[in-house]
Write a structure and sequence with these properties.
Length: 114
């Protein structure tokens, strides 16, 4: 499945190479494809994901670290993230996406498996 990259994390990965052209060559894609993924106009396809996974074996990264979180499905709707705020002061209580949960220390967030 095609996935959008997390632009900030993907750019950090790309910047570990001497040049961006070296990165594109190492992955086995064109430089325009690389730049398209970096600016969010192109999704990363399955073939490119497999190529990048091979490069990540030598680094302390997983492919999921470089990609936007998978959508959360509730009913027939897809959501990027669920954010819970206190009504009184808009203080963040909890943020949930498919990769992690960020919660205020005063709150416990429990995920109930199927």
């Amino acid at each position: 499945m095609n996935r959008k990259v997390d632009i900030e994390q993907f750019t950090k990965f790309v910047d570990t190479f001497k040049t961006r052209l070296d990165c594109a060559r190492e992955i086995g894609i064109s430089s325009s494809h690389l730049y398209g993924m970096m600016n969010g106009s192109i999704s990363m396809g399955e073939k490119t994901q497999k190529k990048i996974e091979k490069l990540l074996d030598d680094r302390d990264l997983k492919l999921e670290d470089l990609l936007e979180p998978q959508p959360i499905k509730i009913g027939d709707k897809l959501f990027k993230e669920i954010v819970v705020y206190k009504k009184a002061n808009n203080e963040l209580v909890c943020g949930i996406n498919s990769q992690n949960i960020i919660a205020d220390n005063d709150y416990i967030v429990e995920c109930v498996p199927l």
